[in-house]
DNA sequence: GCGACAG
DNA sequence: ATCTTGTCGC
């Protein structure tokens, strides 16, 4: 698929509805040995799109590989169409990985989207891989008030059905909005993310991806924990 | 018409 | 998201 801005927003929405019907939301059945986190940053005042994907051993959560791809940014931010801005760079970053992860946690929504096709779903659909949406705020849906203790959960309901979960991943922090992207179930989205929590609000894979994509001060420190030959970059 | 609106 | 000063809590 080749969507070059400016394109018809209406046609893009129709594409999302059509592609969403092709998503697989049944439980992922194979062993997950490698989990990745994926995120986008916008360097140079948004003139560039930088994708970062970092892979981890699924059991001990030690970092394995990192890929960073920077491309010119074309699209503006349009709520509901985030995938068209982010996915092309994420695909390039994914292609650089020597060892492909069985599961990718993506910053943003999965099916918790007006047309059930958030950026996490779009990445999973295009690559035909398992993805989970890990969003820091809500796009659509409603839920009961969340209890204060960490670990509290509420189902996220949209149009009368469960599209994901709202999780208090850390005390005194705003919750996470989790939803399946592709090839995982709603229940698995919750359990896989919980498995990747390590005391911070964001699960380790997306936290590292965010650090590299947005070039946080912590990125330099994290980079030292990776073998130089396991770091791939395209600029 | 008005409010909501991932990143 | 990005930019950026100041503040609060552990």
From TrEMBL:
<dbReference type="GO" id="GO:0016891">
    <property type="term" value="F:RNA endonuclease activity producing 5'-phosphomonoesters, hydrolytic mechanism"/>
</dbReference>
<keyword id="KW-0255">Endonuclease</keyword>
<dbReference type="InterPro" id="IPR007581">
    <property type="entry name" value="Endonuclease-V"/>
</dbReference>
<keyword id="KW-0234">DNA repair</keyword>
<keyword id="KW-0460">Magnesium</keyword>
<feature type="binding site">
    <location>
        <position position="107"/>
    </location>
    <ligand>
        <name>Mg(2+)</name>
    </ligand>
</feature>
<dbReference type="GO" id="GO:0003727">
    <property type="term" value="F:single-stranded RNA binding"/>
</dbReference>
<dbReference type="GO" id="GO:0000287">
    <property type="term" value="F:magnesium ion binding"/>
</dbReference>
<keyword id="KW-0479">Metal-binding</keyword>
<keyword id="KW-0227">DNA damage</keyword>
<dbReference type="Pfam" id="PF04493">
    <property type="entry name" value="Endonuclease_5"/>
</dbReference>
<dbReference type="GO" id="GO:0006281">
    <property type="term" value="P:DNA repair"/>
</dbReference>
<feature type="site" description="Interaction with target DNA">
    <location>
        <position position="77"/>
    </location>
</feature>
<comment type="function">
    <text>DNA repair enzyme involved in the repair of deaminated bases. Selectively cleaves double-stranded DNA at the second phosphodiester bond 3' to a deoxyinosine leaving behind the intact lesion on the nicked DNA.</text>
</comment>
<dbReference type="GO" id="GO:0005737">
    <property type="term" value="C:cytoplasm"/>
</dbReference>
<keyword id="KW-0378">Hydrolase</keyword>
<feature type="binding site">
    <location>
        <position position="39"/>
    </location>
    <ligand>
        <name>Mg(2+)</name>
    </ligand>
</feature>
<protein>
    <recommendedName>
        <fullName>Endonuclease V</fullName>
        <ecNumber>3.1.21.7</ecNumber>
    </recommendedName>
</protein>
<comment type="similarity">
    <text>Belongs to the endonuclease V family.</text>
</comment>
<keyword id="KW-0540">Nuclease</keyword>
<keyword id="KW-0963">Cytoplasm</keyword>
<dbReference type="GO" id="GO:0043737">
    <property type="term" value="F:deoxyribonuclease V activity"/>
</dbReference>
């Amino acid at each position: 698929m080749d969507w070059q801005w400016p394109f018809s927003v209406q046609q893009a929405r129709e594409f999302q509805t059509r592609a969403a019907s092709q998503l697989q939301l049944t439980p992922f059945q194979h062993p997950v040995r490698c989990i990745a986190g994926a995120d986008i940053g916008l360097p140079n005042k948004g003139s560039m799109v930088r994708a970062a994907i970092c892979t981890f051993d699924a059991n001990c959560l030690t970092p394995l590989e990192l890929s960073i791809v920077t491309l010119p940014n074309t699209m503006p931010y349009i709520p509901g169409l985030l995938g068209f801005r982010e996915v092309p760079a994420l695909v390039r970053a994914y292609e650089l990985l020597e060892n492909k992860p069985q599961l990718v946690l993506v910053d943003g929504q999965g099916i918790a989207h007006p047309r059930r096709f958030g950026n996490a779903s779009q990445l999973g659909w295009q690559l035909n891989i398992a993805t989970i949406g890990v969003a820091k705020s809500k796009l659509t849906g409603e839920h009961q008030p969340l209890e204060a203790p960490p670990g509290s959960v509420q189902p996220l309901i949209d149009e009368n059905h469960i599209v994901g979960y709202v999780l208090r991943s850390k005390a005194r922090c705003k919750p996470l909005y989790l939803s399946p992207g592709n090839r995982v179930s709603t229940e698995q989205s919750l359990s896989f993310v919980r498995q990747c929590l390590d005391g911070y609000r964001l699960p380790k894979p997306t936290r590292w991806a965010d650090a590299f994509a947005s070039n946080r001060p912590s990125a330099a420190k994290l980079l030292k924990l990776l073998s130089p030959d396991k770091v791939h970059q395209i600029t």
